[in-house]
């Protein structure tokens, strides 16, 4: 299934691991926090000189293990061995927060029938399914998505409880993120998370 493309960002930075120049959208910014501790800056707003690493687990782990943050900053920095796990956790937190903001702005719709209608009308940029939801409803919505040329991205990282807490609802299983600027911004973090954690549970790949 195709994922909607993250919006193009013309600003480019150098990845300190590969040495390649890449769009910011595919990178994670880090800064020196208190005590010279390497701190992820996912919003790209923290003060200080930024150091950029490709948004994937291997690159962040390599940068931490080989002391590349200190080399790039020309200063002694301390990178935690679990830095990649920190990035993953922070990205998930941002994504949940983004869903809550989107619901309050009217950019989300939830419930099987409403989500099915959003997909059918071509308005759904992302189909967000609870990772622990029943397979039957998910299969039906995926079948609806396959019948349309504009296939939404599929996201199954969060449980029904996590989605419910983020959206202020109970028993959230099926949600659609409607196409628009908010969905484009959210997609950037979703694509970055894919470098650290699968966007779909492994068990889903075995479903017919």
Name a few traits of the molecule:
disordered N terminus, 3-stranded antiparallel sheet, alpha+beta, 208 residues, 4-stranded mixed sheet
Proportion of residues in extended strands: 15-25%
Shape descriptor reads elongated
Helix percent reads 25-40%
Order of helices and strands: EEEEEHHHEHEHEHEH
Distance between the termini: 14 Å
Task: Enumerate the strands of the largest sheet in spatial order, edge to edge or round the barrel.
Answer: 6-9-7-8
What's the total helix number? Answer: 7
Write structural notes for this entry.
The chain has 208 residues and is of the alpha+beta class. Helix content is 38%, strand content 17%. It has a four-stranded mixed β-sheet, with helices on both faces. Helix 3 (83-104) crosses helix 6 (160-167), helix 3 packs antiparallel against helix 7 and helix 4 (112-120) packs parallel to helix 5. The longest helix is centred in the middle third of the chain and has 22 residues, at 83-104. The chain is elongated, with a radius of gyration of 18 Å. The protein starts with 11 loop residues before the first strand and ends in a 15-residue tail after the last helix.
């Amino acid at each position: 299934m195709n994922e909607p493309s993250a919006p193009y960002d013309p600003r480019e930075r150098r990845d300190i691991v590969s040495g390649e120049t890449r769009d910011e959208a595919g990178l994670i910014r880090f800064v020196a926090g208190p005590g010279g501790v390497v701190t992820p800056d996912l919003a790209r707003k923290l003060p200080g000189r930024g150091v950029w690493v490709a948004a994937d687990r291997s690159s962040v782990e390599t940068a931490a293990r080989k002391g590349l943050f200190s080399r790039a900053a020309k200063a002694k920095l301390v990178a935690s061995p679990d830095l990649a796990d920190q990035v993953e956790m922070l990205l998930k937190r941002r994504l949940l927060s983004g869903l809550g903001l989107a619901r309050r702005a009217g950019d989300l719709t939830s419930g099987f029938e409403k989500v099915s209608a959003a997909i059918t009308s071509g308005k759904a940029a992302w189909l967000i399914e609870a990772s622990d939801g029943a397979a039957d409803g998910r299969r039906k919505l995926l079948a609806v998505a396959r019948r349309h040329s504009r296939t939404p991205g599929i996201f199954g990282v969060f449980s029904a409880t996590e989605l419910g807490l983020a959206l202020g609802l109970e028993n959230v299983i099926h949600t659609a993120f409607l196409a628009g600027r908010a969905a484009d911004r959210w997609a950037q973090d979703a694509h970055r998370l894919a470098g650290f954690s699968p966007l779909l549970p492994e068990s889903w790949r075995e479903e017919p």
